[in-house]
Write a structure and sequence with these properties.
Helix content: 25-40%
Order of helices and strands: HHEEEEHEHEHEEH
CATH class of the largest domain: Alpha Beta
Distance between the termini: 41 Å
Structural class: alpha/beta
């Protein structure tokens, strides 16, 4: 028997979402995305860019990626090309990306500075300015960047904090779009 699978900690290993594939390579085990319940509504936003104001209730039937970011955070700037690509690639398939810009520093509160950054970084999806941290607090968020993925019913189904895991995030987007199409 494979020593990894016979180890006493194998249940924790398998529960981690990894499985031993043929040939000894590790592969992601298929599993449904966890349902964290209904997502909180977007609230207390100061301004919208690239869109009229949106509500999550008004986006029922769509898969929604809520991306908390700030334009002078290097970690956010490293994730932005991926977020921009997902917004463009999956828009016609039912994904709505909403950037929630929550400032870390006072100069980031300026709508003019934010608008210039949106243009500079090629952000075409809707961006909401959350200067009072109202949506940040509603989501219980603590990190830049942070991605929250909602299914077509408005339930939080996936979250990721920081950089990386782009393939996993994209797979979650695809899975929820598939659910929405089948649903």
């Amino acid at each position: 028997m494979n020593p990894i699978l016979s180890h006493p900690g194998r249940r924790a290993f398998l529960a981690s979402g990894l499985a031993l594939a043929a040939g000894g390579a590790f592969a992601a085990a298929p599993s449904p995305l966890y349902d964290y319940g209904a997502a909180p509504e977007l609230t207390g936003l100061d301004a919208w860019f690239n869109s009229q104001p949106l509500t999550l209730a008004g986006l029922r039937g769509k898969v929604v990626l809520v991306d908390f970011w700030t334009y002078s955070c290097i970690n956010c700037l490293r994730t932005l090309p991926h977020v921009n690509r997902w917004a463009g690639t999956y828009r016609d398939k039912g994904l709505v990306v909403i950037g929630v810009h929550t400032p870390e520093f006072p100069f980031e509160r300026s709508a003019g500075n934010l608008q210039a950054a949106i243009k500079r970084f090629g952000v075409k999806h809707p961006v909401a300015q959350d200067n009072r941290y109202a949506t940040w607090k509603a989501f219980g968020n603590q990190y830049w960047p942070a991605a929250y993925l909602l299914d077509a019913r408005g339930h939080l189904r996936y979250r990721h904090f920081g950089e990386g895991e782009y393939d996993r995030t994209e797979a979650a987007i695809q899975a929820l779009l598939g659910e929405a199409k089948a649903g």
